[in-house]
Design a protein that fits this description.
With 113 residues, this protein is mostly helical. The protein has one domain. It has eight helices and no strands. It comes from Sphingobacterium zhuxiongii. One of its GO terms (cellular component) is membrane. This is NINE protein. InterPro entries: TM2, TM2D1-3-like.
Length: 113
């Protein structure tokens, strides 16, 4: 894949991934075929800031975990009212990182097809 395309993708999408994943993403994209680049661009990545806001507003209900695809954790959080509030508070600090990791997993999966 062309280096210029990869750089443009990383500049426009860097907020969706952890900073330590960016070099790995760049290497994977440079090694990938041009046909797989379309798969990567079409993916809908979750915005970590939006998920944090949802977590702040409805964290005890587990909606933030449902949004990023952690259905089991979302159900657990819903049934325990956010772990009696403790789990909800912990998620205020962890949810952005979890969202970025889920986005990275989605990117790796889209490159493997």
């Amino acid at each position: 894949m062309e280096s210029q395309k990869v750089d443009m993708f990383l500049m426009s999408q860097n907020k969706f991934f952890e900073s330590y994943h960016l070099m790995e993403i760049k290497e994977m994209l440079l090694k990938a075929d041009d046909s797989k680049f379309t798969n990567v661009q079409v993916q809908q990545y979750k915005d970590p800031t939006t998920v944090l806001i949802v977590s702040l507003l409805a964290g005890p209900l587990g909606i933030d975990r449902f949004m990023i695809g952690d259905t089991g954790l979302g159900i657990g959080k819903l049934l325990t009212c956010g772990g009696f509030g403790i789990w909800a508070i912990i998620d205020y600090f962890l949810i952005m990182g979890a969202t970025k990791n889920k986005n990275f997993e989605k990117l790796v999966t889209s490159l493997s097809y």
